[in-house]
Structures are given as structure tokens and as C-alpha cells.
From TrEMBL:
Pfam family name, one: 2-Hacid_dh_C
Protein name: Erythronate-4-phosphate dehydrogenase
GO terms under cellular component: cytosol
Natural source organism: Alkalimarinus sediminis
Chain positions recorded as NAD(+) binding sites: D146, T170, D227, G252
D-isomer specific 2-hydroxyacid dehydrogenase NAD-binding domain: residues covered: 109-251
Length: 378
């Protein structure tokens, strides 16, 4: 059995090596020639899977080790009897921690207290709903907008736009009653004040990059955070220099999230083939380099939280890594953007870290649990 896969799928050979022969390629460069003799195609979000790629091939199973599916022509797969599986929710915790780290870093130069913060979340699928629940546990006032979810606690889009922080977690759609392409266009961006913060870790083209660039030039106090970009991997270097934090599409790139996606697709393929699933992520994943933190009764709550957040994930590392690539020519920038993602470090999630609290009050315990840490009394 022949498997063709994106070379950036973590633990690819560990999970799939005993299923079939594996050929790997850079995800953006996969061609119909590469795929034509494959029985199984495994991708991440950078590969467009459609008729142009699959026509004439013998592929009968496509798996994307990511939560998004806008790079997959699911209608074509269905019409041609090709089984498809994705990994919904695999990187939700990672994206939540990206948002939390972003707010922690921004708190260094502007007042941000979770208990005083209003956050508007646009898109409440696997990721957005996790952002909502986490921020609410931290004490923030959260308004959620998703017109595709019929719930009474959903806010209007207009009310969400009044929040201190607006965090975007929608798929990219161009049709239907609620298209998200350029949802944040010139008109919507004009409604946001310089005191607000816009975070996009969903899909790049949900924000009109040209309109955002004009806003940042005319209102330099406005805070924009972009992990996703409209023209990836050829991002606009001028826009990247204007945003407060810019990162190379890695919000969901925790090692736990990526391996979780691989494991979910492995399980789906085993079901498709009628094989037993013999492998689990725990067999292969190493202990985190920092596994334990200890706080005493002398530790102040806010300082303790921000210290722990940034010790495990400080988004500024990714921000400055991207900044260092902006001086080259277009070809160099494109190559560097993909290299930052391919060679991304083994970032671990908060749940792997044991936080020991000695003689601290209950609020410390509550907040660390809300962040997702493994909390123990020392």
C-alpha cells in the first residue's frame, strides 16, 4: 500500500510505517505526479486537495492532520468515493494558549486584567468555543458570535465589535449566507477604536490585509495580532512590521496538538482499512523540558500567572523569528516563512506542566486550573 504525505506531519513514520510504504514531499509542492500511484494521501493545511491533484490517481483515503477543511474539495472526494477524515479540535488548546500568551505579553505595555476584560469571539467551533470557556473561567466577560450556531447566549456581531479584544476563529468561506472572506473589511475595521485589540489566529483572508494596513498607518495606536495572513506564504512585509505581534501561522503548532492530529488520522485510517490501531501518541512523545513550577504564599497572583504562561510559551519568540525574515526578497521571505513552520520547536501545552502551590490561597489554585495547568498542593 502506497502512502503519500506532507513531510511536516509529526511522527508520520511512527504511526503509519507499518501500514504502507511512505513517500514524503513538501506540502505546498505536492503534485498530481507525486500522488497518482498513491492509495492514501495525508496532508496538512497548505496542500490544496482537489480534482487537479487527484484526477487519475488511485487514492481512496485522504486525511488532513489539521482541524480546517477549506483546503479540501470535499464534494469532489464524496462524488469519487474517496473517504475523508480531518482532526477537529486537535490543536484547540494550542490556539487558546496562543491567545493567552498574546494577552499576557500585551499586558506589559497596556492594562490588561482578565477580570476586567471584555472579549468578543467570532466563530465558536472547536477552537472558538474553547477560547470562550477558558477566558470565562479566567474571569473575562466574553461575547460569542457564530451565526451557524443556534444558541440563545450568542451575541450580535455589532455587540462583539465593542469588546476590548476581538479574537477570530472562523473558517474561510466565500459563499452561503454568512461568508467570512474579508469579514473584517474597511467598513468593519473603521468601527474599531485605537483602544481595542484584534487577534486573528483563524484564517488569513477573514481580515482584509490591505484595509488593516491602511488602518494601522492612520491609527498607529490600534493593536493588531496576526498569526495568519491573506497571501501565505508570501506575506506582506509592510503589514508584518505594523502589527503589534506577527507570527508565521503557528498558533496551533504545539507538539501536543500536531501529534494529536496525526493520531486522529491514524485512527481514522485504521477504521477505514479494518486494522487495529496499535499506536498511541504517549508511546512516542517525550517529557517537556520544563515539567514543574513551584510557587509559595509569597507569590502574587498576577505575577505568578504571567510568569508561568511565558515560561511555557512566550509568543514574542515567534514574533521576532518572523520579523528577522522580512528583510529579504520575495523568494527568500517565502522560503523563510515555510522554514519557520517546518523547523518549529517542540512547544508543549500547559497541561503537561505540574504547578506546585504551597500555602497559597484558593484564587491561585482556581486561576492556574483555569489556564489548564496540572495544579497540585505542595
Amino acid at each position: 500500500m502506497k502512502i503519500v504525505a506532507d513531510e511536516n506531519i509529526p511522527l508520520l513514520h511512527n504511526f503509519f510505517g507499518d501500514v504502507g510504504e511512505i513517500d514524503t514531499y513538501p506540502g505546498r509542492q505536492l503534485t498530481s505526479e507525486n500522488v497518482k500511484s498513491a492509495d492514501i494521501l495525508l496532508v496538512r493545511s497548505v496542500t490544496q486537495v482537489n480534482e487537479a491533484l487527484l484526477a487519475g490517481s488511485r487514492v481512496k483515503f485522504v486525511g488532513t492532520c489539521t482541524i480546517g477543511t477549506d483546503h479540501i474539495d470535499t464534494d469532489y472526494l464524496q462524488k469519487n468515493g474517496i473517504t475523508f477524515s480531518s482532526a477537529p479540535g486537535c490543536n484547540a488548546n494550542s490556539v487558546v494558549e496562543y491567545v493567552i500568551s498574546t494577552l499576557s505579553v500585551l499586558s506589559e505595555f497596556r492594562y490588561i486584567d482578565f477580570s476586567d476584560l471584555s472579549v468578543g469571539v467570532v466563530g465558536c467551533g472547536n477552537v472558538g468555543s474553547r477560547v470562550v470557556s477558558t477566558l470565562r473561567r479566567l474571569g473575562a466577560k466574553v461575547l460569542a458570535y457564530d451565526p451557524l450556531i443556534d444558541q440563545t447566549d450568542m451575541a450580535s456581531f455589532e455587540d462583539v465589535l465593542k469588546s476590548d479584544v476581538i479574537s477570530l476563529h472562523t473558517p474561510l468561506t466565500t459563499d452561503g449566507p454568512y461568508p467570512t472572506y474579508h469579514l473584517f473589511n474597511e467598513s468593519v475595521l473603521a468601527q474599531l477604536s485605537e483602544q481595542q485589540i484584534l487577534i486573528n489566529s483563524g484564517r488569513g483572508a477573514v481580515v482584509d490585509g490591505s484595509a488593516l494596513k491602511r488602518k494601522l498607518k492612520s491609527e498607529p495606536g490600534f493593536t493588531a495580532v496576526l498569526d495568519v495572513w491573506e497571501t501565505e506564504p508570501n506575506i506582506d512585509p509592510e503589514l508584518a512590521r505594523l502589527v503589534a505581534i506577527g507570527t508565521p501561522h503557528i498558533a496551533g503548532y504545539s507538539l501536543d496538538g500536531k501529534i494529536g492530529g496525526t493520531e486522529m488520522i491514524y485512527q481514522a485510517l485504521c477504521r477505514h482499512l479494518g486494522l487495529p490501531a496499535r499506536h498511541k501518541a504517549a508511546q512516542f512523545i517525550a517529557s517537556p523540558p520544563l515539567s514543574k513550577m513551584y510557587f509559595t504564599s509569597e507569590a502574587e497572583l498576577s505575577w505568578s500567572m504571567h510568569t508561568a504562561i511565558r515560561a511555557i510559551y512566550d509568543v514574542r519568540h515567534d514574533h521576532y523569528a518572523l520579523r528577522r525574515t522580512l528583510g529579504g526578497n520575495e523568494e527568500q521571505r517565502v522560503e523563510a516563512f515555510d522554514r519557520l513552520r517546518k523547523e518549529y520547536r517542540a512547544r508543549r501545552e500547559f497541561s503537561n506542566i505540574k504547578v506546585l502551590l504551597k500555602n497559597t490561597d484558593s484564587s491561585m489554585h482556581t486561576m492556574f486550573k483555569a489556564l489548564g495547568f496540572n495544579v497540585k498542593s505542595a
